[in-house]
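Anyone? Bumping this.
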Amino acid sequence: MKPERVRPGAFPRLCLWSGLLFLYVPLAMLVLGSFNANRLASVWSGFSLHWYAGLVSNEALLQAAGLSLLVAATSATLAVLAGTQLAFVLARRGVFRGRALLALLSTSPLVMPEVILGLSLLLLFTGMEDLFGWPQGRGLCTLILAHASFTVAFVSVVVQARLAGMDPQLEEAARDLGATPWRSFRDVTLPLILPGVVAGWLLAFTLSLDDVVIASFTSGPGGSTLPLLIWSKVRLGLAPEINALATLLMLVVMLCLLLSAWLFNRARSD
Amino acid sequence: MLLCWSWTLGLLLLPLVIVLRISLAEPRLAQPPYSPLWRTDVEGAASLDLRWDSYRLLLEDPVYAQAWWDSLGLAGGTALLCLLLAYPMAWAIAASSPGRRRTLLLLVMLPFWTSLLLRIYAWMGLLAPQGMLSQALIWSGLRDLPLTLLHSPPAVFIGMVYAYLPFMLLPIHASLEKLDAQLLEAAADLGCPPWLAFLRVALPLSLPGVMAGTVLVFVPALGEFVIPDLLGGPGTLLLGQVLWNEFFVNRAWPIAAALALTLLGSMGLVLASHQILQRRLGQHT
């Protein structure tokens, strides 16, 4: 028998609605500010797309956005490759020597503060440079490696959740029918966990696109990512161009989420 | 298998080992800015050169103790405020119909998908002296002068609660969802007033969720950097900012490394005690 639901009270409901207001009012104001013709946030002097037009002609910003997209896409792909394998090993291999250590280490980026992740990765890169002469300085390579190294943990958790919901007997059946381990993974497991893999990629992509702290440790003097650019501008005070940029980015995220929701629903109805 | 191990050992464990090694060195005005691991004496014999000076400095200099207290206060306060807001919210969500529940959870999660940096920027706009909140207070006649919340401790708390609320809400909701309301009805039938039934029945049963949420908020909040950097004032320095300054501004790599390891160690302590408590709780129910 299903447990009966707790009864809603007036106070919890009040908290729920004020909590949701608390979550959404700042975002609404952010969007509103991007259409304000006035530079001052407090004075509304009419609707304008002025700040959006400014974005398109901002060379440094476009370059940073391009770099960020490249880093996010590459590191998310690396993270999915390693994270899926990691999830598979942790969920399917049973007990093996060092499993506890692997599980502990691989989930540590979920709670480790970004300053520690950034510091330790930078020290690793400079140490490697001293010993092997690679990576020379910091730049695209170190940035991608750093982002991949902390997003793997998130991919692995998402894929593990998907693997836990899947019947392992399906893989056993494939093996009994003579499929090689790789074939049973490719033809049986992978199609079933694909939604988890895609969700993991999207999560890794978003996390990479959002990161300021690790990027400021591991990026080079030349290439500034979009969050780094926004951060250095925002530290100086309010800027309506950032409102316009934020509105556009939120729109892109919404479209991505809608697209993935649509893909999931289609996959389920098939 | 090889990929898994090389990734976890090479990109997660090895960096921490290097941090440990640098934390035991002495700052130098050189490249790299710390003393070498081996010391060779006149006869050419090498010996390990480990120094505990960085850790001693962390204990002795009151600047670091202040940063610890401020960070612990911020993390604890954030966890408490999140709990006070998230618990009733989770209750209201758990009490609604399954379809509505999914929509409400989605609404709570949705802002999480927008960049943290931009969400904090949105609060900068609201809290600035010429911002929305201050203007609204003046307009409604509650205040005469602009309210300067930005770059003050309350602003940091608002931003922290805003960013960490879902981490508290989701585990609490997960445990309230499983709570059978018939238990509360039984308590009421036996003459128990609702508030006592909540305290004696519902709250203990949702305790695992509350504990998980508290840990999920407290641990990352302890080392938070972006939110205090953007919303906080120049007066208070938290652990994340101290580490940042030691590394980038003072180039004191060994001190930054020692600070990182002590911070990591204290987080490990919190997580381990949570594991033990959770296991204890599991045995009782």
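Late reply, but here is one note on the structure posted above: The two ends of chain A are 30 Å apart (CA to CA).
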